[in-house]
Amino acid sequence: MNRKTGAALAAATLLLGLTGCGENKIPNLTDEQVAQVGEFTAFTLMRYDANHRSRLVDYTSMMESTPAPETPESPEPAPEQTGMDPVDDTPVIGNGETDTSADAEELLGLPEGMSLSCVGHTVCGVYPEGESDFVITAAAGKKLLVIQFDLANSLDAEQAVDLLESDCAFRITVNGKLTRKALLTGLPDDLSTFSGTVPAGGSVSTVLLIEVDGETAENISSIVLRLKNGSKAGTIQVL
Hints:
The structure is a single chain. The protein is α+β, with helices and mostly antiparallel strands. It is built from five helices and twelve strands. The strands form four sheets. A five-stranded mixed sheet has the order 1-12-11-7-8. A three-stranded antiparallel sheet has the order 2-5-10. It is elongated and about 130 Å long.
């Protein structure tokens, strides 16, 4: 019998041996009191019995015995980046590639007898102006720079042109600083996606658009269009 069990039995014996008025005799107990003493004795014995497992859980002792969760290690900070990611607003300096010079007709894959010429540019908030089923509207504080081209057919027969199949890319540089890709507008006269028929000896009007801020729109001094298709490239001086 261990020390805790012995203490429990002593406490029970002491309780049963309580006397009244200093007399050394067992007191008269009611049945209810006898039952209470028995319950207390049983509870005390079970409490100190190492082989007894209670369904009640002492959460205080459990928290003390349960190891605290490990704190995850903080990830090492990523190395600081220098410079900035290239964006369309960043001037094009060159990527080390050597491009073969070509004219616009070759870069666009135009059929024989077709030619492309720039006829001007304009700045507006909405294109096309006037009534139209489909228009492009500049964002707040922005303007649309619209560059206008003629697709001319010198032959005596009409010719079909489909630039949707062309892999030509268009970049427009304004004032030697701002360079952006031409917008894919979905307009029927968008040069980059034009698909239609050019009449014999005639021409059709096409455009390329970019969006510029209001200050740039009011101070345009030069416009250069760069066309690139694979390893071939060419430029058109618009202004």
